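Note to self: the last two entries modelled the partners one at a time, which told us nothing about the interface. This time every component goes in together.
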Amino acid sequence: MSKLDLEGVDRRGFLKTTGLGLGVAVGTLVFGPGIASAAEGSAAPVAEGAFPYVNLDPREGMLRGHAGYWKSGCAYGAFYAITSMLREKVGGPYTQVPYRMMAWGRGGGANWGTLCGALTGACAAINLAAADADVNKLVSELMGWYSTFSFPSTDATKMGVAGAFTQTAKAYPKIELIQTTSNSPLCHVSNATWIAASGIPLGDDRRKERCARLTADVVAKTISMLNDYKAGTFVPVFKMNEETETCLGCHEQHQEGKMSCTECHEPHEY
Amino acid sequence: MSKLDLEGVDRRGFLKTTGLGLGVAVGTLVFGPGIASAAEGSAAPVAEGAFPYVNLDPREGMLRGHAGYWKSGCAYGAFYAITSMLREKVGGPYTQVPYRMMAWGRGGGANWGTLCGALTGACAAINLAAADADVNKLVSELMGWYSTFSFPSTDATKMGVAGAFTQTAKAYPKIELIQTTSNSPLCHVSNATWIAASGIPLGDDRRKERCARLTADVVAKTISMLNDYKAGTFVPVFKMNEETETCLGCHEQHQEGKMSCTECHEPHEY
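The predicted structure of the combined assembly is written out below.
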């Protein structure tokens, strides 16, 4: 039993008193027998609440998102971009969540083509920084924005053509790329739409550069939403299209989702 | 300058020497001025490698997955189930990754119906525990298994009917539930298929219980895969169906994904 235990302060109480339990971890310390055993064992669990958020620069986020894409894919890129900036500006709890944990989302989840990985990475970052009651609002808005946005943005194209993505270790095609709207948050639809319009195949570096710039765009949008959220000025604007709204008039309880129905289903008379 | 700095040990070196840098965080300590400044500032970043994994009990995982679903949804449930067990058995770095960070995946991502949230939560846990080179293999296998599995499993149904999910704070329907195979990892398809077969609507507690048991099943499968992976005996068995393989014979470079094509597209002559 440690000295502090003998003094009637258990480990949890000790951590609370010293502020060590407030979302800050403490490992096995080796400053001396007394203190070491006071804090030994596993680290105090991180608090289950939103991490602190401070305003971030969307353009810096674009650079990191792009670089992260070329390092380990879209989901890694988006998550790395946002959380690496928060590590630098906030530190604390962000430093203990590994960048790599969202890499699985690449290509819509191990290349299955489900949710766009840039969204997967960004949504996990949103969840870290936003309160439970607000996560759905922010994530839903991001999905809606994504579905109706023309990727890659003109800004990302300008940066790409100008060679501004200097953090990228690998060479990337410094060219203009066609823009498309996918009408869906799914990687499969997003890529298939762009590939059909551009005639550039999946394995081509230009297609990858398209997704690197898309990752940059998703990061910039996420940061801009989180900055607004932090300022208390975030207002969701996404609305389902009228067609989908009509479908859900009858089918709302027949399914889960806000994706456009006619992307997969034939419309029918009613 | 701290005492340790004066002795020629910088902060990084100090953390390395004491083992505090090995994936374990240290906050601003308040044991005294000397020690406080030795460890002050932001925590040493967690290592960007797989966290340690130890064998887990799939049945215990089912209980926690089910309970987590009823607390904060499918994605929370799956991620909580696996990482809470790893916190208890491994401790260390798992304690600093908040359970709540994957909650956004509920209902296929803020109820958008994209990737099943139980998969979203489980995949993030896989990514924490598996090496970079193996993440895609494990995640892809889980997606494939999910697409062809009949949910909820007979085991989960037995546990549900027997009232075995005792960790769940809320009451849940202790009834048999129809089983369906969704042929897709998407929440939308998974739910719509089950709702069509059961006649039970989305908002019904029985439908939610179906997803709670599905979460339990996804956790059990993930744990069983990770146990095999740890033992060096994991072998992926998922194969795309022949129809999809035929499609990809021509269309592989036209899209990203492994989902069944004819779920959304009409087959065509070639």
